[in-house]
C-alpha cells in the first residue's frame, strides 16, 4: 500500500503523519488519538465528525486527509487550555446542553466557528450554524441557549 | 421536604469529559492487535443457505476468523434485553442456515483492517434457495403464507405456522355491554410506521480475552447484565468467565436494550484469540439494528353524551419483523399504558404480533405507547369535536386521577400477569392548566383562519402516561463505600445511556448522605465491579436504581452517624448531617467533618464504612404529559410546520430539573420525527431504500418549533424523594397533538404516520373533490 | 472506502490536472471539495487529483461578466459581495440552501455541476442565468452554455475533461427585474424535492418583458422551461398569468416517483414553486400582487 507524509497543524502543534493517499481525515485523526472526533454516519450528514479547518467547520468524514496538507486543524481536544475550559464548553455544561455527549464536540466546534466570525449572532444564525450537527438527545434547545450565553460573554469568547 | 442536592440543576458528573472529547466511549481505545469484525448480511428477505464456502475468505491474508452457521453452537435465544426468563420468543440463533430479512446474518469475519474484512466478505460464496417472502403484515397470517419460523427448536412462539409471534387478549368488564350503554360509538383505523432510533453513536462492541482468558465485552449497551447472561448462554461459557463493561454511551433510546453485536463479536474474539471490534455503519444501523414496531390500530370508543368514556376496544396488528424481540411486551404496553388513561369501566385489548421478512423491531422510547396514544388521542379529539366539548375539558373530565386503580395493568405485565396500578400521584390536571396557558389555548382555538393566506394555523393537544419501571420485575442494587476524604464510591449496575442517570443517582446518594455532589464517585455498568441491575429501560433508573441507592445511602449514613456520635460523645438522635459535616442539633453546636469521620473509621476503628441495598417496586407509578402543538399548514404544498410545542410533564420530583427538561426536549424531537418525517422504507423485495440520513429525515436545529417545557412536579410515595420518571412519556402525545392541530387548522384528519406534505395535500385535494361532488348533488 | 488509491496529486494548473486525468485510464477522480466523491466511494479509484491548488478558486468581475473558478466553495459564493450583487443575489441564495455550513465550507461550484445530480441547486440557478461553463479538454478550452454541459449523454465526456470556470453575464438593463430561488425539502437541510429558479423583468405598464424559469428535480438534469417563458412574454403580470404558467409547468414536466416524493406531488410542487418564484421576482421588480 502506498504511503505519503501529511504535514498538518493540529491543535497548535505541528504534526507529520504517515498516511495512505485514500485515507479519510476522520480515520487519521482518530487513529492518531483524537478520539473526540466522532464517527456517526460517514456521509457528511450528522456532523459528529466536525473539526475546524483553517477556522472553518468541515465534516472530517468527507475529507481526504491529504486535502488538509498544510492546514490548521482544531479538534475538541484543542479547545480547553489545560483545566481551563473554553467559554462554550462551560456554557454547554451550565445549560444542560450535554446529554450523551456524542454530538457535543462537533457542535461546540461549529459554534466556535460561528462566534469567531460573528460574535453577536441571532438565534436564527446559531441554528443555521448548528444545522449540520444532529443531536438525538437534547432537541437543540439547550445547546442553542448555551451558544447564545457564551456569545453574551462577549470578547472573552474570541480566542 | 427541603433538599439541598436533589432538585438542583447541577452539572452532569461526566460533563467535563464529554465536552472535552476525552476518550470515554466504547470505540475510544486502541488495543494492540485489534481486528475488525464484519457481518455478511443477507441480500434476500427469505432464503435457505444451501451451501456456504468460506475457504477463499479464510485464505485471504489478514483474515483471522470466519464463522458460518457450521462453526458455532446452535442455541435458541432472544436478543431482547429483558429479565430472565425473557417473555420474547427464543427464535434467534448466533448464525443460522436460514435468513429471514435483508441484512440477516449469513457469516462473520475478523480481519486486520476494515478493507480486508470487507474484501473477505466478498469472497464468501453462498448458494441460496430463495423462498417467497412475507413483507406485508396484513398477509402474514393468511393460510398458505410462507412460514418464517419453521425450525423445530425455537420456543415461545405463539403460532409459528401462521407467523404469529405473540397474541394478546385482555378485557376488563364487557365492552359489548359498554358499547350498548354508550350514546355514541366511534371507530377508526390508524397506521404507524417503522421508526429508527438513529442515536448518534452506532452500535459498537469490542471483545477480547483478558489475562485470565475471560471474555471481556466492552459495549455500548443499556443492558450489561442481560448481555452477560445471554452471551454466556449462547457461546456456552460460564457467566463467571464473561465480563461486560459499559463505557459512556452515545444514545440508546431502547435500540441498545438488545444484545445485538456482543455475541457474534465474542465468538469472533474466541475464534481469532485476538481483540475484535465490531461497529455498525450508519447504513447497517438502519436495517440491521432495531426499530419501532409498525402497527395497524383499530380503535373503537363508546361515550356518553356528556363525553364520559364507557368502553374502549383496541385491536392491534403489529409486526415484529423477522425475529420476535420485544414482540409481546411492546404491544402489551400499547394496551396497558394507553387504554387506562380514561376511566372507562370496560376495556378490551387484543393484539396479534406477526413475523414478516423485514428488519427486526425492538424497544424504542415509549415502547408501544406512541402508537397507541396516536390512535387514542386522535380519536378522542374527534369525539370531543363531534360532541362540542373542548378537548382540554374532555381530558379533565375523563382522564385517570389520583387514587384511581388501573386494573388493566394487572392483566398485562411483562408477558404474564402483572400487578394492579394504584395512582398515588397525578399531576395531569396541572399539566393541562399550565400547558394550555403557555400556548394560549383558548385564544388560539377561537382565532379564525386567515382566508387570504396559504398558511393556516391551528392548535391541538393530547395527553399521555407511561410507567416508571416494570412492577415486580425491574430491580436494582447499589453499593457504597467511604473514602478517606469523606467521599464515597457509589457502584451501580445501572447504565447511563446519556440521559444523566449517573448524575441523578449521585445526587440521590449525596442528598441522603448529607454531602455535596463532588463527594460521590459513581461507577456504573461493569459486571465485575458493580452489583446487579436489570438495565436502562422502562424509565426505571431514577425510581428503581435510585431507590436502591437511597436505601444503601441510608444504611451507610447510619454507620457514619454512629461513628460521629461516638466521636462527638453524643447520641445518633442528636445528630444531623449536611454540607459534608455532621453536627449536633442542640444549642451547643458540636460538629465533625465527614473527612474526619472517614479517617477515624479507616485508621482508628479499622472499619470500612460500606453497605449495599437492592430495590424493586410492586407498582409502576405513571408519569403524565400534556402536549400542546401549534402548527402552520401550507395548503399549497402540504408542508406542516410546527411553530410551537408545549409539553407539561409530571415526572414526580425532578431530581435534576435541567436534566429532566433535556429529556423532555429530546423526547419531543423524536416525537416530531415520528409524526412528520421519519420512516424506514423497504422496496418490494424487502431491501432498505433509505438507510442514511440523506433520506431518513430527522429534525435538525433549524427544524425545531419553539419549545416550552413545564415540569408540573408531584411527590410519588414509591419514588426516591418523590421521583417517578421522565425519559419516555414526553414522546407519546406529540404525534396526536400535531394531527389534532392539523385538523383545527385545515379540517382534515390524517390517521397514518408520518404525516408528510404529500399526504396533507392529497387529503386536502380529496376533500375538495368531495365538496365539489356534494355541491353538484345539491344543485341537481 | 478508498483502499486502493496509490497516488494523490496536487497539480498546480488545470492543464496538469487534465494530463493526469487522461493518463489514468479512468481510474482517477478529481477532488474539488470531495463531498460527493467520498459519499460515492470507490474501490476502483487508483488516483486522486486534488484541484484546489490549480488556481481555480476565484470570483472576478469584468464589467458585466462574472467569472467564477470551478473550485470556488459554496460558502465563498454565499459570502461574496460580487455574487450577492449579481442577479439579485440568486446564486448566493441557491448556494446558501445547499446542505449545512460544513458542506458549504467544502463543496465547490464545479463539483456541484460535475456531479450531475438532477437536484443540483447551483445548476438550476446557473441555467436560469444563462451561464456558460468553460471546460478544459484534450482539444483545449471549450466554452459552452451550462445546459449543454449538463446534457446526460455527455456524462462520459466529463471523465476526460476538467471543468475550470463558470461565467455569468449580468443583463444590461436591470430596472424592474427580479430573481428568485425556491426550494422544497422535507426538512430544512435536504436535497431539493423540487426547486425553481426564476427571473423576470416587467415594463413600465406591468407587462412581462421577459421571463426565465429553470426547475430542478423534475427531470434527469435541471431544465429550463421555454414554453412557460414564451407564454409569459408580453403578458400583463397578474394572477391569471401565474395560473396559466402553473398549468403549463404541469404539462411540461415528467418527474419520477422515488422514495422522496411521487411524480404527482413533484408536479404540483413545480407548479406552486413556479408561482411563488415569479411572485418574488415581481415583488423585487416593484410589483406586488
Overview of this structure, please?
The complex is a heterotrimer of chains A (159), B (780) and C (289). Chain A has 159 residues and is α+β, with helices and mostly antiparallel strands. Chain A is built from 5 helices and 5 strands. A 5-stranded mixed β-sheet of chain A has the order 2-1-5-3-4, with helices on one face. The longest helix of chain A has 14 residues, at 104-117. Chain B is α+β, with helices and mostly antiparallel strands and 780 residues long. Chain C is an alpha+beta fold. Chain C contains 13 helices and 12 strands. Chain C has helices at residues 14-23, 35-40, 74-79, 81-85, 90-96, 101-104, 109-115, 121-128, 146-150, 155-158, 226-232, 239-252, 263-284, and strands at 7-9, 28-31, 47-50, 59-62, 65-69, 132-137, 140-145, 162-169, 177-184, 194-202, 208-216, 223-224. The model of chain C has no long low-confidence stretch (mean pLDDT 94). Classes of the chains: A alpha+beta (159), B alpha+beta (780), C alpha+beta (289). Chains in contact: A-B, A-C, B-C. Chains A and B meet through helix 2, helix 3, helix 4 and helix 5 of A and helix 1 and helix 17 of B.
Most residues in contact: chain pair:
A-B, 54 and 56 residues
- Low-pLDDT runs of 5+ residues of chain C are none
What structural class do the secondary elements of chain A suggest? alpha+beta
Going across the major beta sheet of chain C, what is the strand order? 4-5-8-6-7
**How many beta-strand runs of chain A?**
5
Estimated radius of gyration of chain C: 19 Å
On the 0-100 scale, what is the average pLDDT of chain C?
94
Shape type of chain C: globular
**Head-to-tail CA distance between termini of chain C:** 53 Å
Q: If helices are DSSP runs of H or I spanning 4 or more residues, what is the number of helices of chain A?
A: 5
CATH class of the largest domain in chain C: Alpha Beta
Q: Give helix and strand order of chain C, one letter per element, not per position.
A: EHEHEEEHHHHHHEEHHEEEEEHHH
